[in-house]
Sequence to fold (153 residues):
Amino acid sequence: MVINTKCFGQVDIGEEKVITFDSGILGFEEFKKYTILYDNSGEQRSTISWLQSMDEPGLALPIVEPCYIKEDYNPTVEDSLLEGLGEMNDENTLVFVTLTVPGSLKDMTANLRAPIIINADTRKAMQIILEDNSYPIKFNVFEAVEAMKKSKG
Fold:
């Protein structure tokens, strides 16, 4: 199916690439169907992806796998919260966090408190709010990546 997007123009998406959020996403509860788009202009897939609404062309959230910005990210999530996604295991579980990109990349933040969990087998997803206050809503990405680079030499 062809969808219209604000950032990528018209994109042909196979039905197997559609992800359903039964409860929507925080702030966008009315939109339930999304896909993940990647910038393929370079030789490698970009670290940042886009969670694109299938119904609203202007709704595309930048997302990233948290391991790229916080290597020890490992929140505790009650299994009962994820029951609606189907059987979860290490092979079919994808975790992303949303990014906020203001005018300067040095001010880019990730919301580590509300990750997006996707079951790749069922293509069902949800955004959850962690009870663990040690994960901030506005985690500075630039500072974290710079610190990771320094620690690796």
